[in-house]
Design a protein that fits this description.
Layout lengths: L1 H26 L10 E2 L7 E3 L4 E6 L2 E6 L5 E4 L7 E9 L5 E7 L5 E6 L12 E7 L2 E2 L8 E2 L9 E8 L2 E6 L6 E3 L10 E6 L1 E10 L23 E4 L3 E2 L19 E4 L5 E3 H5 L6 E11 L3 E10 L1 E6 L2 E7 L19 E7 L2 E11 L5 E6 L5 E3 L1
Antiparallel strand pairs: 1-16, 2-5, 3-4, 4-16, 5-15, 6-12, 6-16, 7-8, 7-15, 8-9, 9-10, 9-11, 12-13, 13-14, 17-19, 17-21, 18-21, 20-27, 21-26, 21-28, 22-25, 22-27, 23-24, 23-26
């Protein structure tokens, strides 16, 4: 009898525990669907848009957004995207741009993929491009390695798929193979909204949150990782105004009162001044400084990528001046973008310390430099 009572007591305790567990489980909020497919409605109430420039109607038998002006836009309401697959169909209306924003925090900070008017041209190197917006600046001109050809069709739907995983992204356009590979997303945002801009039709917008098709969230290798020739650490001055048309002379070099801070190169050796100083409505100049310490007198070649204007001084003497001005037609190869193909010149280094100063001016999109020596053997940078 005693054993039976003990057994009944244990059974009651067990039932109470299980009931409490069931109650706690029932009180927990439902987990979000990790791989749910979201078909986004293309109706006016789901979007913020520029009045008078956007229509929501049917096009070629499917619901669509028609953006009627190059500066027209449509911003999806109440949807935060971080990682996953984004798919949509796009038809360009003319030879202009068609832009898609994701992880959009605001107009100043967002990731961006866009098409240029290169429909039918399978060899155009700039048909499609990825570029982040950082502090209000589109970095298309300092990240030319994130552009390439694309099979854009005119007068037809173009199917576009983005696979976004952490720091990496693959972009597909009318193909089962990636059209654009981005081993590192360069923007400052990791999540945000979605938006379209430019004269395009948009249909069949689908989001698959957190699906990545096996794409690693870790950034890919920097192609310059194994190359010791890049000067990757500089001292940087604050920006100073430089009126249009004015040049820089030796009498205006930084002095002992100049405040310096260290700036480190990003991928591919890029010293990215835009990430530090952002947009400028007028021309500015920043000074970059490095000391090249040599064991013996020698002549060295330097390949320099830059945007937009540079003045080079070695040990206080002007050594080289150049321009990479996109709008004025003074575009360096490749087509005004920053590249070590922009220019090259020689440095006559003395034994011991050599102060290399670069003044760099900008008032048009991104700015910075890439500096690569022919060799740094026998030279230390500090």
């Amino acid at each position: 009898m005693k054993n039976l009572l003990s057994l009944i007591s244990l059974l009651i305790i067990s039932l109470n525990i299980n009931a409490q567990k069931s109650k706690k489980t029932a009180e927990l909020p439902p987990k979000p669907l990790q791989n749910s497919k979201l078909k986004i409605p293309l109706t006016a109430e789901s979007w913020d848009y520029k009045t008078g420039s956007v229509e929501f109607s049917e096009y070629k038998g499917v619901p669509a957004i028609k953006i009627q002006t190059n500066d027209g836009y449509a911003i999806l309401k109440n949807q935060i995207f971080s990682n996953g697959i984004l798919e949509f169909d796009l038809e360009p209306q003319d030879a202009g741009f068609g832009s898609f924003y994701f992880r959009r925090e605001n107009e100043q900070e967002t990731e961006l993929v866009y098409l240029r008017g290169r429909a039918g041209n399978l060899t155009a190197m700039d048909a499609i491009q990825y570029a982040p917006m950082i502090k209000g600046i589109n970095l298309w001109d300092v990240l030319p390695h994130y552009q390439g050809p694309a099979n854009i069709k005119k007068g037809e739907w173009n199917h576009i798929k983005l696979v976004v995983s952490g720091r990496q992204m693959l972009v597909y356009l009318n193909d089962t193979n990636p059209t654009l590979v981005v081993p590192r997303l360069e923007g400052n945002t990791t999540q945000g909204g979605l938006a379209f801009e430019g004269k395009v039709y948009i249909s069949n917008l689908v989001i698959r949150p957190n699906e990545n098709e096996g794409l690693s969230p870790k950034e890919g290798w920097d192609p310059s990782f194994n190359d010791p020739r890049y000067i990757r650490t500089w001292q940087m001055s604050p920006p100073l105004p430089l009126p249009k048309g004015r040049e820089v002379f030796a009498e205006e070099l930084p002095n002992k009162e100049t405040v310096w801070q260290t700036i480190l190169a990003e991928r591919r050796g890029l010293i990215n001044l835009t990430r530090v100083y952002g947009r400028s409505e007028s021309r500015r100049v920043v000074w970059l400084k490095v000391n090249l310490k040599t064991v013996a007198e020698q002549k060295r070649k330097i390949d320099l990528g830059f945007s937009d204007e540079v003045w080079i001084f070695l040990n206080g003497r002007m050594t080289y001046v150049d321009k990479n001005l996109y709008l004025q037609g003074m575009r360096k190869k490749p087509d005004g973008r920053i590249s070590t193909d922009n220019c090259s010149f020689e440095l006559n280094l003395k034994a011991g310390d050599n102060e290399l100063l670069i003044g760099i001016a900008n008032d048009f999109y991104g700015w910075g430099i890439i500096a690569r020596m022919d060799t740094l053997e026998g030279i230390t940078t500090e």
